[in-house]
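Design review, sub-item: ligand-bound model
Attendees: FS, YL, KQ
YL presented the inputs for the zinc ion complex:
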Amino acid sequence: MNLRHFAFASAFKAIVATRAHRWARGLSQGVGAILMLHSVRPWQGHAFAPNQLLEITPEWLDEALALVRSEGYDLVDMDEMAALIAGPRRDRFAVALSFDDGFRDNRDHALPILRRHRAPWTVHVTTGFADGTAALWWVELEAAIRALPRVTMTVAGRILDHETHEPEAMHIAFDEIYWALRARPEAELRNAIAALGAEAGIDSAALTHNLCLDWDELRALAAEPGLTIGAHTKTHMMLARHPLVDRSTTWPIRLATRPRQARASSRLPVMPASGRR
Ligand SMILES: [Zn+2]
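KQ shared the predicted structure:
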């Protein structure tokens, strides 16, 4: 029996926000759910926040974990979840927590809450983010559009040209550029956003370093009881586009999640839960 991969992060947010009763009953035909989370930080208050679907607030995490506990579900680590997938118990519903990419706010904002709820958790680290060598291109695109008064680029022979003074115009620009580039080869996407970021004066390496845990911080965090560190590729490449994955690694990898960029449009609030062994 396979674990169902629930595309319910946004629905879960809404359910927790409204404290809907027995939120997971409808999901509990499966053995459990893996919450695929990213940033955990106080709401930044930006009217233009196209990557909002990739963050939750500390309050949300606290309420979600309280709800999981109050419903009597098991909070399990990824190894236990894998065991449940292999041999599900019918009587228990389990929840596992995956924090992808290696954001520093996981330590600063999520950790105290996870400790309080005694919740096991896994940080799936993109090693290039820890190095500061890989680009958080979707964040960089957001930052560039926020910084520039006008965004112009040519994608597949089509000129995309947006004035970006107002949040709504910024959202439209982001959606159009994002999806136009997503249809192109990954190198083209990354190069185009790097060029736009440079035009906006964004230091891509500094942006990554400001948001992600570095190796010293990861080493210190790794001693945390209940925390597992898993892999999430070197560069956060779109694995579906790369059938030949570079298997060279210096870490013994037991757990990995596959980067699968959420549909970052505010109109498409779907985020796949893709924790996998
Ligand atoms: Zn990721």
